[in-house]
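REQUEST ID: PR-0412
SUBMITTED BY: lab tech R.K.
PRIORITY: routine
TASK: structure prediction, single protein chain
INPUT:
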Amino acid sequence: MSRHSTHADHAQALRRLDRFSYWTDSNFRVPFTSFRFGLSPLIGLVPVIGDFIGLVLSLYVLHEARRVGASRRVQARMVFNMLVEFVGGLVPIIGDAFDAIFKANTRNTALLRRWLKEQLETEPRQPFPWFTLLWLSLLIAVLFGLMVLLLA
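STATUS: complete
OUTPUT:
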């Protein structure tokens, strides 16, 4: 995790990415089906330029991943997903359907979510402060003893 990012920062980033992924990958539903697609495959209908614009838009997910300190491995996987969708989208007609199915932004958001969850689970736990407990107990006992002596 990034030294300066917090769990609240991560939650906000994931909310932004969920919203972004929704709009790019699953904003619209095909009537009478459960299939959803977003703006990305619609933009991809414009030959070559549309796929390039989709790739540029997908860089936002990578930017957020870098901002929260995602590992190089996670970022590399994101770039791979983006390139798969870009290259797949270049194929006429089939590529547009592929773009609607592959949903790189949703995949990358899920990838970042899993990575952040792993980071939370692997954060070292603070050991119990036994030393502090002992000296504080000793101090309280001494103060209590002094109070008993003074009041007696």
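NOTES: The chain has seven helices and two strands.
REVIEWED BY: pending
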